[in-house]
Write a structure and sequence with these properties.
GO molecular function, one term: mRNA 3'-UTR AU-rich region binding
GO biological process, one term: nuclear polyadenylation-dependent rRNA catabolic process
Order of helices and strands: HHEEEEHEEHEEEEEEH
Protein name: Ribosomal RNA-processing protein 43
Low-confidence stretches: none
CATH topology of one domain: Ribosomal Protein S5, domain 2
Distance between the termini: 57 Å
Number of strands: 12
Largest sheet: 6 strands, mixed
CATH architecture of one domain: 2-Layer Sandwich
Helix content: 25-40%
Main location: cytoplasm
Number of helices: 5
Keywords: Cytoplasm, Exosome, Nucleus, Ribonucleoprotein, Ribosomal protein, RNA-binding, rRNA processing
Mean pLDDT: 91
Length: about 290
Amino acid sequence: MAAASSSTAAGTNATEQDALKALTFQRLHPKTYLERFLAENVRPDGRDFDEWRDISVNVGSISTADGSALVRLGSTTVVCGVKAEIAEPELDKPKDGFLVPNLDLPAICSPKFKPGPPTDEAQVISDRLNDVLISSGVVSTSSLCIEPSKSAWVLYVDATCINYDGNAFDATLLAMVAALKNTRLPKARYDEDRQQTICSRKVKEPLQIGRLPVSFSFGIFDGAYILADPTSFEEPLLDTSVSVVVDDAGGLISVMQLGLGTADGQDLLSTCIDAAKECWQNTRKDVYATS
């Protein structure tokens, strides 16, 4: 009995030592570590090259916000809240309101990020999110106008990553769109006599929602491998990243490529677009159904 216990303990110690050696090798030689996995047609987390992580969308969890959503994409977790204010429209756009998306990548979500002002990565992703939200027309800015040249809604769509494991763009876009779909605003009108906007305390109305964009991001490694939904370990090793955004009917909204890399023997953009549409059809078609 004692011999059996000793054998089990020895086996456990050997397993722990192997895991420690693998972790050390991963940190010291990350590219070689990834290459060895890909040579065996598998990724470090066990996924196939074209396999996407599981996703969940929950809405309405922030009671103080006008709309909210929590999205989990694998281990990447993003929470988004929408806060509405009233402002005067811009002079050159008297019939438009404002949509202001922003992503925060705080130090608490990953050792990759440091305390201090917003990172360049967060700003780049925020700009890309703004482009997609405006171009897709998920919420038309004209629908946010209360009275031309007098009063309009400003929607601050603030997302925070609370756990980062790569592909923040896809997760944040899902969280922002779900939060906007969940948003309810007080019924408002502009009183000419008082020269002010009057909001109902009892009646709240949903936003006028247009197309619902969904993003599918890919990473190209070593000019030979196209990896769907890259993790935080894979991202720094990629030559290129491609994000394909489709709407809730499967129509193409935009394609964004960062980096100049290519995939050997493949039409990179066409391959990514086809893979994105296939994933949308098979697993993401109803991602906003509960929001």
